[in-house]
Each structure stands twice: as C-alpha cells, then as structure tokens.
Design goal:
Radius of gyration: 33 Å
CATH topology of the largest domain: Helix Hairpins
Number of domains: 3
Strand order of the largest sheet: 6-5-4-3-7
Shape: elongated
Number of strands: 12
Largest sheet: 5 strands, antiparallel
CATH architecture of the largest domain: Orthogonal Bundle
Distance between the termini: 117 Å
Structural class: alpha+beta
Strand content: 15-25%
Helix content: 40-55%
Number of helices: 9
Order of helices and strands: HEEHHHHEEEEHEEHEEHHEE
Length: about 300
C-alpha cells in the first residue's frame, strides 16, 4: 500500500506528483466542499422564523462564508501538492486577463453578483419589476444569476448584470407596504358622494386592504371629467402579502366595485357620440329619406 501511495505519476523539473499527493489533494478539496455546504446550511437555518430582512442578511452571510471556505480549501489543497501559493496567485491573475475577454459576460455577472450581495439593493424576498415588465419575488441570489419567482409560479433565472446595468423597480426596498391605484369611471348623472361611499365599501371588503391606519386608509379621488364618464381612482394601501400579485389584487377590487355599483344603482357609462346634421344633400333642415328597407308598405 505504501509503495502504491509513493508511486510517481508526473515529474516536471523539480515538481513530482505522487499518488499520495493526489489523495491528499482530493481529500482536502472534498473536505472544503463538504464543510462549506454544511456551514451554509447551518447559517441558513438560523434564518428560519425570523423577519424577512433578517433572513436576507443571514442569506448574504451564508453565501460569503460558502465561497470563502471553498477558495481557502482549494488553495490549501493546491499547496498540498507542493505548489507555491504566491505563484499560483500570480498565474491566476495572468490567466484572468485572457479569460476575461473570452468569458466577459460570465465575469460581468460574477462581479454583479458580488455587488448585489454587498450593496443589498435587492434582497431575497423583495418584489422586483425588470425593465422588460416582468414582475416577481426574489427567491435566491447566486454569484452568477438570481432566481425570480413570478405570480404564475414560474422561476426565471436572471443574469445578475441585468440588476446592475438596467433600471429595476424594487417594490419593497424600503417599505413592504404598497399603495395601489384602481381607476374606474361612472355616468355623469351619478352622485359623486354616493360613488365615493360605494368605492370605499368595496375596498373594505377586500381582505388585504389596510383600513386601520389613519394615513393609509382607502380613498376615492375624482380625477377628471372624461369624454363619457366621471373618472375616479380608488387609492388603497395593501398588505405585503398582496404586493407580489398585482393582477389578482386589481381583479379583487374591480369585482367588489361592480358589486357596490349594482347595490347603489350606479351606472357604468358606455362610449357614445351625438351627431348633429346641418344639411342633407345640400339642403338645410331637409328630411332624411328612408331607404327601401325602411319604407312602409
């Protein structure tokens, strides 16, 4: 057994690679992987049952510990082969220049991932809207990409560079509560006070509406006199649970608004146009002739 471990595999100048060295390298590399994974799981378990923001902070610490342990472990594994760590670092820096040109996008996403982890402009649990209009909840931030879960329960893998180089709306960056605007129109003959009462009652029937905070109570605003209707907006603040589902939330308010309008006999207008004819066939105030299909027998 000892002879097998001491068997030489490769000899390059003064460097000799033996079976024993290869076994030690593999053990150290495997140990680094196992320890980093275990530490990451242990740290993530500390986040269970905590506030969303605390979970995001613990998630970042877990990521950093994971990658630091991997780098340190592989450096120790390489040193076990008899390699000089300083020379390895110099070689890695030289290769990074050449690799950078070929893997520019990958390197860009890697650096962007580190920026996201340290800057914390986007955190796990945030509701974000990308420049292309896609909306979802951040489930995981990795070094190369970020996993975003949409309201349709689809996981979208987004390159980290997109969060750094393009405009991203973070709906829950500083406050997880959000104000929602629901526009609607009613007939001109409608009493605006009755419309306001009906709209507020509709808002109160939607479970996720905040009604017990004075400066965030539901409101109904008359915004403009439209071509065919009085145009209102129902302004409501909603619970954080509803922020990630804007379409379902809007549908709930529209449903309750229609119910209130029927209850108070509020008419929803239809587009209409009044046409005034001054002349017919060049004659002013001339009677309009009936077509054959309209003539009486």
């Amino acid at each position: 057994m000892n002879e097998l471990l001491q068997k030489e595999l490769i000899t390059i100048g003064e460097f000799t690679l033996k079976v024993y060295d290869l076994v030690v390298f593999g053990a150290l590399a495997l140990g680094a992987i196992v320890v980093s994974i275990v530490m990451r799981i242990m740290i993530n378990r500390l986040a269970e049952g905590r506030d969303v923001r605390e979970q995001a902070n613990i998630h970042i610490v877990g990521k950093l510990v994971y990658y630091v342990l991997l780098v340190v472990g592989f450096m120790l594994a390489l040193s076990s082969l008899g390699m000089d760590i300083s020379k390895i670092a110099l070689l890695a820096s030289a290769l990074s220049v050449g690799i950078g040109f070929g893997l520019q996008s990958v390197f860009n996403n890697f650096v962007s991932g580190i920026i996201l982890l340290f800057e914390r402009s986007i955190k796990v649990g945030d509701v974000v809207e990308l420049e292309d209009g896609m909306l979802g909840t951040v489930r995981e931030i990795n070094i190369r990409s970020t996993r975003v879960n949409t309201p349709d329960n689809m996981d979208v893998i987004v390159p980290n560079s997109e969060f750094v180089s393009t405009r991203v709306r973070n709906w829950t960056f500083s406050d997880r509560y959000r104000r929602v605007r629901v526009p609607f129109g009613v007939h001109y003959k409608s009493d605006k006070e009755v419309v306001r009462k009906a709209a507020l009652e509709a808002a109160s029937r939607v479970p996720l509406t905040i009604t017990d905070v004075e400066d965030r109570a539901p409101q109904a605003w008359l915004l403009e006199f439209g071509d065919n209707s009085l145009n209102f907006e129902l302004i409501v603040w909603v619970d954080p649970k509803a922020v990630s589902k804007p379409m379902a939330l809007r549908a709930s308010y529209m449903w309750e608004l229609e119910t209130s309008f029927k209850e108070y006999d509020i008419e929803i207008p239809y587009p209409q146009r009044d046409i005034h004819l001054r002349t017919v066939y060049g004659e002013e105030d001339a009677p309009i002739p009936l077509s054959q299909s309209q003539e009486s027998p």
